[in-house]
Amino acid sequence: MSAFDSNRLQKLRRNLLAWYAKHARDLPWRRTGKPYAIWISEIMLQQTTVAAVVPYFERFMRRFPTVVKLAAAEEEEVLRHWEGLGYYSRARNIHRTARVVTTELGGRFPDDVSSLEKLPGIGRYTAGAIVSFAFDKPAPIVEANTLRLHCRLLGYDEDPRTAAGQNVLWDFAERILPRKQPGRFNQAVMELGSQVCTPKEPACERCPLKSVCVAFANGTQAELPRPKKRQVLTDVTEATVAVHKDGRYLLYRRGENERWAGLWDFPRYQINGETGAALAAKLESQIQESTGISSAIGDRLVEFRHGVTRYRIRLLCYSAEYCEGRLKRGTELKWVRSEEFSAYPLSVTGRKFARHLENLSP
């Protein structure tokens, strides 16, 4: 960081803010200085692209325009409006935080990083974003786009995700932050990282910071930041079953210790190479054990492939007919008509299967 003396820092700030004035995208959460809207947008943007977030954000804000409205809602409705964004723990955390802010903080968000970090699901970056964007107070931020930009500006060739790497980048983010308009500056840093200093083939020739960028000077921008180690994926095969009874299908709500906790889904089980009659018998046994009813497995209707964390999943979707028995007490199981599926928050593959079943309905 010694290369960034006061003159270079001033040039960086001046050039970046001038570029942002001309190139900032018109995004709905930038039209408001309200901490609630900024918080929701920042949580949605974690692990999700801006283009994907915009319609979700607008729909969410129409239904839950204030933190009080969000706090008063049932978790299931919050999850339904989050459906498709993934990482559903984010939705459960915003619901918890909304209730804390409403009941314990009088409906007002704290304006300092340390207080915000005490709320469920708010880490250092999100807290810094709220403080700088909503309250225009200096607070450094490091997220995916700024991590990449800062590594290239510094020519940092160590792993930026280690504790040492994070210290370097957060120190740099704090050092370059101006006292005036820190929120606008942070927005500009993120926008430049997203639109110009891209992961592949960065547009260095039109970058306003190329004259102060160490990676550009050394020709190493394609090598920085040091890439993550590639995760080894495990192949898994699962089966999900639409058990049918008198025009309704069986859904169950996933528990706290399961993937997609709080969402509804069709009964779903892991299989280990079984096929044909052996697979049908296994699924019928698992359905009876987990739900209390007996059923007869029918045709395989459709197949989906998807990824969850380190798993690459092949999902086989079957039909089944209810035979006899009552649903287990103490379990969240429901018989639901296909036209009612839209009222339930489902996993992505659960929603795909539900739409397939809707299309099969007369």
General description of the model:
- This protein is α+β, with helices and mostly antiparallel strands and 362 residues long.
- Helices cover 45% and strands 16% of the residues.
- The chain folds into two domains: 6-218, Hypothetical protein, domain 2 (Endonuclease III, domain 1); 234-360, Nucleoside Triphosphate Pyrophosphohydrolase (Alpha-Beta Complex).
- The chain has helices at 6-23, 35-45, 50-63, 67-72, 75-82, 89-104, 113-116, 124-135, 144-154, 163-176, 182-195, 214-218, 276-291, 348-360; strands spanning 234-245, 248-253, 264-265, 268-271, 294-308, 311-324, 333-337.
- Strands 1, 2, 3, 4, 5, 6 and 7 form a seven-stranded mixed beta sheet that branches.
- The longest helix has 18 residues, at 6-23.
- The model has no long low-confidence stretch (mean pLDDT 95).
List the topology elements:
Blueprint: H1 6-23, H2 35-45, H3 50-63, H4 67-72, H5 75-82, H6 89-104, H7 113-116, H8 124-135, H9 144-154, H10 163-176, H11 182-195, H12 214-218, E1 234-245, E2 248-253, E3 264-265, E4 268-271, H13 276-291, E5 294-308, E6 311-324, E7 333-337, H14 348-360
